[in-house]
Amino acid sequence: MGSGSSAALKLLSALAALGACERPLPMREAQTQAEQLRDLALAKSRAHDWTRELADGVGARLAGTPGDAKAVAWAEAKMRAIGLANVHTEPVAVTHWERGVETGEVTFPSKQPLALTALGGSVPTPAQATEAEVVELRSLEETDLLPEDKLRGKIAFFNRAMERTRTGEGYGKVSPIRRSGASKAAARGAVGMLMRSLSTAENRLPHTGAMEYEAGAPKVPAAALSVSDADLLHRLLAIGGPIRVRFTLGCRSLPDAQSANVVGEVVGREKPDQVVLIGAHLDSWDLATGALDDGVGVGMVLEVGRLIAQLQPHPRRTIRIVLFANEEHGLNGAHAYARAHESELERHVAALELDHGTGKAYAVAYLGGPNAASVMNEICVPLGSLGLSPPTSGTRGGADLIPLHPSGVPMISLLQDGTYYFDIHHSADDTFDKVDSAAMSQTVAAAAVLIYGLAESRDDLGRVPEAQRTRQP
Ligand SMILES: [Zn+2]
After folding, report:
1. 109 pLDDT band (50/70/90 cuts)?
2. Which H or E run contains 70?
3. Which of 12, 149, 392, 417 counts the most CB atoms within 10 A of its CB?
4. What is the C-alpha to C-alpha distance for residues 40 and 29, in angstroms, rounded to an integer?
5. How far is ligand 1, taken at its centre, from the CA of residue 424, in Å?
6. Is residue 66 exposed (0-12), middle (13-18) or buried (19+ Cβ within 10 Å)?
C-alpha cells in the first residue's frame, strides 16, 4: 500500500476513535471500568500517603495562620504531581482567630485543675481571669426557664453528653449549645460560658469548635471542658453548695486573612463543561494536625482524582477536585466557591464531600431529580462487594456544599462509620496514628466508583426540586 492509503487509514481510525469518544461507553464497559477502578483503589490507594504528608508534614492549619498558607501551597503542588489538569488557587478571605494561653481551675470548695480549651471565635477573659460561681444547665432552652437572676454574675456550665452513633447524628443534636450557648447565657447576665466538650471520648482532652456571638448580647469568654472535668463539676454541684471556677483565655480575633480554595480537574472527554465535584476541607483546628478532620478527606479526594486521571479515555464529564478553605470557622471557602462559580452551578451535575473521618463507608445517600434513583442504582452496582447497602434518597451533603443547595445541585453522601470519630474530632488527639489505612482504601474505592459513574453515566441526576432545596444560610 502507498503512503496515501496508509494516511487515509490513519484518518479513518482516528475518526472512529473520535466517534467512540462522543458517546457514552456501553453500560457494561463503563461498569467494568468502575470495577477496575475499585479494585485498583483497594490494592494501591495512596490516600494515606497524602494524608500523612499533610498532617505530619504541614501540620495544623487553622484559617489565616502560616500552617494554612503552607497547606495551600502543598495542595497545589500535590495536585500537579498526581496528574490533575487546570490546577489553580482561588482567593478566599478567611476568619482569623488565634488561641493563646488557656488555664482553668476549681477554686472552691477545693482547688482542682480543669482541662479546657477556648471555643473558636471566643473573646479572651479579662486580664485577671474570669472567676465566678458555676450554674449547671442541660440545654439552651433551660436558660429561658431559669429565674431572672439565676445566671447574673455566674459562669453558665452547659453539661449535655453527646451520644455515640454510627451516623454521627449525636453531634448535630448538641452542637447548637456550642454555637449559641455563650450569647444565650450572657443575655441572662452570665460572665462566662463553659460547656462539656462535644465528644464521645472518656478522657481529659477538651474539644474545640466554632461558636458565634449574637448581635445585642454581651460577648463573654467561652470554653469547652474535657468530659472528665465536666463530670467532676457535675459531681461537685450534686453535693450542693456553691462551686467556684476561675479560667483564663488569651485568644484573640484578628482582621480577616487571605487563604485560598485549591482546585484541580480531570477534564471530561465529551462534556467538559459539566462538572462532578468532589471536595474536602483543607483547613483544620489548631490543637493537633487535623489528620482525621479533614486530612483523610483531603487524602481520599486527591487519590480519587489521581486514579481517574490515569484512565484512558477520561470519563465524559469533568471531575473537579476542590479543597475548601476554612470550613471550620465560617465556611468561607464554600461561600467563595459558590460565588466565583455562580454562572456554572447549573452545570454542576453532582457534588460529594468527604469530611467524616477514617471509618469505612457503609452506604450512599443522594438527593436529585425524579429520575435520580435509576441512575444511582446503576452507578452503585460495583459497591455491593465493598459491603455498602443500596443507595437511598435524602441527604444534605457536606457542610461545604450548603451554598450549592439553592442552585439545585444534586447532593451525594458517602456515609462513613462515625462510631469513634467524635472521640478524636477537634481535639489534641487528631493525629495521623488514628488513621485506618484499610478503611481509607475501601472509602477511596467507593468514592472512585461513584465519581466515575456520575461523570460517565449516560443520564444525569436532574436537579433537586425547588421544594427540597434549602435556602442559603
Ligand atoms: Zn471537618
Report:
1. very high
2. helix 66-81
3. 417
4. 16
5. 12
6. exposed
Pairwise CA distance, residues 250 & 103, whole Å: 9
- For residue 438, how many other CB atoms are within 10 A of its CB? 12
CB-based neighbours (< 5 A) of ligand 1, an ion: 293-294, 355
Tell how far the Cα of 285 is from the centroid of ligand 1, in angstroms.
9
For range 364-388, the mean pLDDT? 97
Cell matching residue 254: 484578628
Name the H helices within 341-436.
372-379, 421-424
Task: Supply φ then ψ for residue 57, to 5 degrees.
Answer: -80, -45
DSSP 289-328: --IIIIIHHHHHHHHHHHHHHT-SSPPSEEEEEEEES-ST
- 100 CA from centroid of ligand 1 (Å): 22
Ligand 1 centroid distance, CA of 413 (Å): 14
With residue 58 as reference, give the H or E element that holds it: none
> Which grid cell is 328?
471550620
Determine the pLDDT at residue 473: 45
Summarised one tens digit per residue, pLDDT across range 35-66 is: 999 999 999 999 999 999 999 999 999 999 99
Judged against a pLDDT cut of 50, whether residue 16 lies above it is answered with no
In this structure, are residues 223 and 287 in contact, taking their beta carbons and an 8 Å threshold? no
Closest alpha carbon to 311 in 7, 70, 30, 22: 30
Centroid of ligand 1 to alpha carbon of 422 (angstroms): 11
Whole-number Å distance, alpha carbon 61 to ligand 1 midpoint, is: 12
pLDDT of residue 272: 98
CA 41 – ligand 1 centroid, Å? 23
**Pick from 322, 353, 311: which is nearest to 447 by CA?**
353
The tens digit of pLDDT for each residue in 267-299 reads 999 999 999 999 999 999 999 999 999 999 999
The structure's pTM equals 0.94
Q: How far is the CA of 237 from the centre of ligand 1 (A)?
A: 34
Return the C-alpha torsion angle 297, 301, 302, 306, nearest 10: 150
Unique residue bearing C-alpha cell 483497594 = 42
Q: How far apart, in whole angstroms, are the C-alpha atoms of residue 454 and residue 396?
A: 18
Task: For residue 337, report the distance from its CA to the centre of ligand 1, in Å.
Answer: 17
